[in-house]
From TrEMBL:
Keywords from the named record: Signal
Stretches assigned to coiled coil: none
Keyword check for Signal: yes
Species the sequence originates in: Photobacterium halotolerans
Family recorded in the similarity comment: Belongs to the bacterial solute-binding protein 3 family.
Signal peptide positions (record): 1-23
Transmembrane segments: none
A GO cellular-component term linked to this record: membrane
Keyword Cell division appears in the UniProt entry: no
GO molecular-function terms, A-Z: ligand-gated monoatomic ion channel activity
SUPFAM superfamilies (alphabetical): Periplasmic binding protein-like II
Domain (Solute-binding protein family 3/N-terminal) ranges: 35-258
Protein name: Amino acid ABC transporter substrate-binding protein
InterPro entries reported in the protein's UniProt record: Iontro_rcpt_C, Solute-binding_3/MltF_N
Length: 265
């Protein structure tokens, strides 16, 4: 495949125009700086994590690096706290959010999303003492139960909307929240399926995973509103990597093989 940015520059040279006359503001800045700055919040397995040697690894990281490589620019990670990730994008400190972000109406009022690149949903990690007693999220909708989750996530929204009678405890990180269940301080932890599946496989006996998602959550790449050129690029990039097998190879590496766990433990 020809590198996208190189093609843009070559085409502009032939036409005698500048890149800015052809590309939108985000693509234009990527060309000018030679960088693709990508926002994420490290700690969301297996999407973005910090390895033992301090580098960032994960499903989103590999896709972001592939995107930069096909653009012919440098991949620049911008690790950002989740509650500030959209403001970081909107102030131009990164070009794109590639962080396992669920597409929803509130976020879509602030940013534009490309087509979903993966579909996930909320699942439940239970205190083992409740195994067999709790069979779905509906069984947790009782004031006698305490549920933990990460602050500002769709997990928190789902609990407030669908399990409102239970007591809700929110934490700054998913790691702190899930420990409440593992340590017997909460009855359940609700969060995205990929994280829960991996955590359950690492903590057999400490939690029980109800692995059927009870919400539908498409994850998408976010960009500043109004930049149709960047959205066009992202949607075509996604079609290309899904069509040529690149996406499947990256997916299998992070979701069907757990050998990467040794890099982050």
């Amino acid at each position: 495949m020809r590198k996208f940015v190189s093609s843009v520059v070559a085409a502009c040279a032939l036409l005698g125009t500048s890149v800015s006359a052809t590309a939108g503001p985000v693509l234009d800045d990527i060309v000018k700086t030679g960088e693709l700055r990508v926002c994420f919040d490290a700690g969301y397995m297996p999407f973005e994590m910090k390895s033992k040697n301090g580098s960032f690894v994960g499903f989103d990281i590999d896709i972001g690096k592939m995107m930069a490589r096909q653009m012919g620019v440098k991949y620049v990670p911008v690790n950002t706290a989740w509650d500030g990730i959209i403001p970081t994008l909107l102030t131009g400190k990164c070009h794109i959010i590639n962080a396992g972000m669920t597409i929803n109406a509130q976020r879509n009022m602030r940013v534009n999303f490309a087509e979903p690149y993966i579909i996930v949903g909320q699942t439940i990690l239970l205190n083992p003492e409740l195994e067999g007693k709790i069979k779905s999220y509906k069984d947790l909708n009782d004031s006698k139960y305490t549920i933990a989750t990460k602050l500002g996530t769709t997990g928190e929204q789902a609990i407030k909307r669908m399990i409102s009678k239970a007591k809700l405890n929110v934490f700054e990180t998913q790691s702190d929240a899930v420990l409440e269940v593992a340590n017997g301080k909460a009855d359940a932890f609700i969060y995205d399926m990929p994280f829960n599946a991996i955590y359950a496989s690492q903590n057999t006996g400490k939690v029980v995973h109800l692995e059927q998602p009870f919400t539908y959550e498409p994850l998408g790449w976010a960009v500043a509103q109004g930049d149709m050129d960047m959205l066009n690029f992202l949607n075509n990039f996604l079609r290309q990597i899904k069509g040529d097998g690149t996406y499947e190879r990256i997916y299998d590496k992070w979701f069907k093989d757990n050998s990467w766990l040794s890099q982050v433990q």
